Amino acid sequence: MFYHDKKLQYRVRVDKPNPMFARMLQQAIGGIEGEIRVCLQYLFQAWGSRGPVKYRDMLLDTGTEEIAHIEMLATAVALNLEGAPASLKDEMAKDKMIGAVMGGMDPRHILSSGMAAMAVDSNGVPFNGSWVVGSGNIAADMYANVMAESTGRVLATRLWEATDDPGMKDMLSFLIARDTMHQNQWLAVIEELGGLKNVHPIPNSFPQDMENQEFNYKFFSTNIEADADVQGRFTSGPSMDGKGEFSAVRITPQGQEPQLGPPDPRGHAQKEQIEFYGGDSLIDKVKGAL
Amino acid sequence: MFYHDKKLQYRVRVDKPNPMFARMLQQAIGGIEGEIRVCLQYLFQAWGSRGPVKYRDMLLDTGTEEIAHIEMLATAVALNLEGAPASLKDEMAKDKMIGAVMGGMDPRHILSSGMAAMAVDSNGVPFNGSWVVGSGNIAADMYANVMAESTGRVLATRLWEATDDPGMKDMLSFLIARDTMHQNQWLAVIEELGGLKNVHPIPNSFPQDMENQEFNYKFFSTNIEADADVQGRFTSGPSMDGKGEFSAVRITPQGQEPQLGPPDPRGHAQKEQIEFYGGDSLIDKVKGAL
Amino acid sequence: MFYHDKKLQYRVRVDKPNPMFARMLQQAIGGIEGEIRVCLQYLFQAWGSRGPVKYRDMLLDTGTEEIAHIEMLATAVALNLEGAPASLKDEMAKDKMIGAVMGGMDPRHILSSGMAAMAVDSNGVPFNGSWVVGSGNIAADMYANVMAESTGRVLATRLWEATDDPGMKDMLSFLIARDTMHQNQWLAVIEELGGLKNVHPIPNSFPQDMENQEFNYKFFSTNIEADADVQGRFTSGPSMDGKGEFSAVRITPQGQEPQLGPPDPRGHAQKEQIEFYGGDSLIDKVKGAL
Amino acid sequence: MFYHDKKLQYRVRVDKPNPMFARMLQQAIGGIEGEIRVCLQYLFQAWGSRGPVKYRDMLLDTGTEEIAHIEMLATAVALNLEGAPASLKDEMAKDKMIGAVMGGMDPRHILSSGMAAMAVDSNGVPFNGSWVVGSGNIAADMYANVMAESTGRVLATRLWEATDDPGMKDMLSFLIARDTMHQNQWLAVIEELGGLKNVHPIPNSFPQDMENQEFNYKFFSTNIEADADVQGRFTSGPSMDGKGEFSAVRITPQGQEPQLGPPDPRGHAQKEQIEFYGGDSLIDKVKGAL
Amino acid sequence: MFYHDKKLQYRVRVDKPNPMFARMLQQAIGGIEGEIRVCLQYLFQAWGSRGPVKYRDMLLDTGTEEIAHIEMLATAVALNLEGAPASLKDEMAKDKMIGAVMGGMDPRHILSSGMAAMAVDSNGVPFNGSWVVGSGNIAADMYANVMAESTGRVLATRLWEATDDPGMKDMLSFLIARDTMHQNQWLAVIEELGGLKNVHPIPNSFPQDMENQEFNYKFFSTNIEADADVQGRFTSGPSMDGKGEFSAVRITPQGQEPQLGPPDPRGHAQKEQIEFYGGDSLIDKVKGAL
Amino acid sequence: MFYHDKKLQYRVRVDKPNPMFARMLQQAIGGIEGEIRVCLQYLFQAWGSRGPVKYRDMLLDTGTEEIAHIEMLATAVALNLEGAPASLKDEMAKDKMIGAVMGGMDPRHILSSGMAAMAVDSNGVPFNGSWVVGSGNIAADMYANVMAESTGRVLATRLWEATDDPGMKDMLSFLIARDTMHQNQWLAVIEELGGLKNVHPIPNSFPQDMENQEFNYKFFSTNIEADADVQGRFTSGPSMDGKGEFSAVRITPQGQEPQLGPPDPRGHAQKEQIEFYGGDSLIDKVKGAL
User: Fold this and answer.
1) Which of B231-245, E36-50, E182-196, F101-115 bottoms out in mean pLDDT, i.e. has the lowest?
2) ipTM of this predicted structure
3) How far apart are alpha carbons B84 and B101 in whole angstroms?
4) Which of C100, C265, C270 is the closest to E137 by Cβ?
């Protein structure tokens, strides 16, 4: 169950309100790299957690922390919007365009939310629940979390660069720090689970001898140029999971040309498609069945 | 630029067509864990690649391979649908319901595609371009790729369990093997880039002394119960990136209660909201400005 | 800021696990009538709240409670899925169809989440952030909340009818009770704000004499039949906001046929469209400008 | 069945075309607060109406009127776009940026629609059918309609503020007036149905003694601070539906820690998750079953 | 402006209600091939029509007719749902599954709409405004309309095959007839505009000598197999627009390997990406700029 | 199966980088008129192709070519973004707004992709798999393809007008030429299939005598004005498919007022809705069944 107090997890101060920056912050709220995503992702992973209980507890701890991050960012959006043009009409009077001020901000911050944050990204595209990944496999989930915190920290550093407002930089330096912790935290679980050699290939509970043994450690080059070969850690030497040896080959088809059967006449392809298979009688059959 | 031949990368054989399994395979085509996602993800990462050229080349190699995986799965869907009920009317005649056969398959495989694969998941939800992650930071992208191949291999093993068709199991054992390779491949890049200690925190080009130094390696417990402390690799000892020391604390607010300013009268909050700030004159000002 | 404990707000017990009911419960999690929507809606309204502080506080209280409702439902989904067929292959062996069991459940509960709840509705359509309404006008928001709790309680009673599992009925009777409270709660705010006569028309801060005075209390019949007139509380008598008198009329156009100007030649309509306005020279102008 | 004439419901005149305002008007066409939503919402409610026939008739009347509102706004968008820059190249020649004019407008008004309205909101996000609410419960639907007309009128007044074009202000003053009527109209139905005391809790056909009787009129504070209690009409006194007495309490968990069962081995969680439940034999069983 | 009467355009009769068929009919309401799409598409094309007025008038005529088609189908859905299981609990009592009946229908027809149509497709995926195509080019729009009526008629014939209910077959035979008319109608406009030779390439107002003259009538084979050449009407002979001569060639790259510049250091790629371009000083510059 | 080389299909050169143009190009990548759509559309049509094999082969050829078009455009986006403001902070220092430069570009090109293309349109709306049309009927599919290439060429000419960068104009003149070819190519298939008279009405395999014979070639005017009749090729003379004679009539309802049955009491409509049908006993029945 959940509780709150009225304070923010960390101070949010906006020295020079900036509606365009409010729009950019929306990416960290409702974007795929944003805080609604990690919040729901960690909570849903916790609620569906099967296996060692401590991971459930940890996910609840961090999922709950993330609600407070959405709160901080939503507050920052509202404060930045207080710098929106005092009078839209004045602005427009100068010129038939509503102007750069308007052009750069999200018009829905005026029209839909009345100067407050929304559950959308920096282009106004709504948050999408498909981004909430919880696979039931803890190792896959930890990588989903490392990925979320990595793109999240990249986003936060870009927002940090995009502002010279000291209050906003301070808030972002806190969020960047938390992303550092969370990257480390999910990686620590992977180490606890035995590290690369035990964890991979994910899922490690699938009997690996049931996978194709010829192609499971081969790098395929699909390049048709003569001198195309890429070389790297992934083309020779032991595989990262310690269970195979990397090699590299030019790709060649192992399968045949696919052959589909005739269309069911009741699906009403064009008759030329049906007749291609000697389908006259098929069409007659349909008529006969009426 | 891209080329093709008419053969499949690996053989696709369906011994006992099964429209319900066709629906399940759609998850591996148009779902968030599916092949359209990884195909476009690797290609977009290649096309926007800045830095060592070999990663661009490698991404092109594997992104191109993934087109062939979509092709294999789309072929498998079409072949499984050839087992759809020969006569919908006959089926329905038995009962006023179209029946379990129909209930379990995607009705759009009949209605929209005429017994062929679509760019949707197993519930008919369309593929969504937001899933195509390319951040411009190669380490973040590699984790996005490990995550995609991990949830992808989990999905493929579940599909493998869900069928006893030898042809389908054979095809899936190939795709599972390729996921093994690709997990290893992206991890190999992380090793080439210096491993956890060099790569993290991502992005490693942000001067880490600019992030908050108090909270960057602290695990926050948000649990209010007396005996709630979680312990793990992530609560003590050196951090995974070697740049800090894990510790754990109960969370406490570092910020204040947020205070937003009055609504702009032109945004037409209720007058009681405006007047709360002594806003009578604000409303008068609007009237005066008309 | 937010906190949690490990207990559920109310007991969740599943006596007879039922994967199909798990799917139905998803509507109450990730559907437009569901708990993620109200949770985020109340929290975003709180975070953007301007005006009397007590409404912010109240919204935080109830928004935080709703997280616990998602948690209860997610737990109920996971428990219901423990009744999923013990062996998919066995099930399929009976018949080439995976069967009614499979057909009725969400295949992604097997394929994507490994028997856990997801942020989607009962058809697997992802939660959509556009449903999170916070307009910056507290009266409009209260109606959005009454509406959410009304469709929410309708949904919960339908779920209650759809199960005869005593544990699920008990959990739903609790959620139904909370919806009763929340309907009353948002209506209480409308009363506090002065009731219908003060609150409407929303927004009450727009000078009502600026709206068209001829059509603001007229019911328009668009029916062309001779005997079509609808009569009701909305066709005569004082309006609900006490500021007008209802009347009813047959609709007649007050405007003219619209006339758009010629297409900009650079937008490349067909030349017949441009020439309709004597546009030959326009096309020449484009050529000349090359 | 439906008919039309060629005239607009009300005059649409644009004195000073403004492409940025065209973009803002899109919110009133294809946004969640917009006219496509109310049009389809009222028509779908009519088409599914069960119960007193006059509500079906009324919904058809107003749903049909709303088509004319979309038409007016679409015309306004097209007319405002006629002020788009006469020459994009000239504009761009000044500067490597296409400029404020371009920046502020929806680029798809040039690229996709050729200077005409689209079924999208002011950020180009497409209209979404999930917004069309018809629950089958007339009271819930009336609140959905009051909510739509309330956020709709808030939007229209904001658009009115955002323009000083006399033609646009005139058109908006008409639409604002219609929103006034429609708010009153749906509220009149609630009065006809017996008002708050008869209508609530919605649905009123669910036997209220089947809901939990302990928590159905209790306000839960989730705030953990000592001095956190909110007081208002919703914390004491008779409930709005007259069926209970409001009270307020600090929230406490009524449930237990959730306990999920072990993952099905065929779902391929990591083996550490399965073994946590003594699952070795489970994995062996899978292998044995191959 | 728009009007209605209370009657349906054509009779809608359901002899044997069938909830599964209700679900299938949703594809014709809210699917991409469905009636909401064509209705809005023709109306939006009308409202943005520039050029000969008669096309605007015609689009209004047919767009208005399509509203009546949605109405017919929505009525058919509601009537088919009256055959839904009289008691869900009874159904469930037989078995822990809610059963085939339930599995095959859209659960939201029970949970969300209370036995009425919704603005979604046969999988519950909401109608999406992006499907409403109006390009501002009348020839492109006519093809969009032919396409919509072609996939629409294919859908309607498949629905006709899927039912043996005489009432439903009668209604569908009417809708199939209207699709026949509408396919012919849009093709008639293309003939009026001068037929293939005048209309193509669309847009015909773009000076065709500005397009690349080497590749505008060449069929590219991307197949790398020796014997891969496809031959058809599209590989030799005069082009369909009469403005070129078809030929076929094996594709060869005309461009070079792309070379992107270094990442902006403020975008925080990994430092290895920046340093690849000799970027040490770039990172120093960032630090220096702090 | 698929292959690649490292070169582009055609040269991509950006003389004057322009982040706003980068945003506009996104429409041609991830928009409904864009290249991801045609690429996947042709490939999915190929993979589901039933009937003459040469069409499968041709679709593979052109679908593969389209991947190279995405590649060209993605490269063009990345190169145009190299002109983004060298320093966001410098830009912002001038003014509290980030400025027109920033306002006009897609902020996610900075925040999410680090100066690279994404799978979204010019408003940042993600590519949507529902746009990938493959109906299983080759004639319907050919019209879907003509439509895609027609709106695609309209888009490309608008982009051509929007830039005066010689490199971009050169690239676009190539893509415009390919759209010319592809329009002709799909039309050539329609001719091969026998032209309008054989192909229509689509599907031509549905026995046309089963469609309603009274209304299949009648133009319906829904206009209620006295002088409203539209005349054109579509109101008289032989139909385009040669199978009927066009005529035009004023529309009149052929159906009756719809009558739905009472709501199922377990769906919990308001009791006034149920009682309208004499439903008291229905509600009692629910209570009795508890």
Assistant:
1) F101-115
2) 0.93
3) 8
4) C270
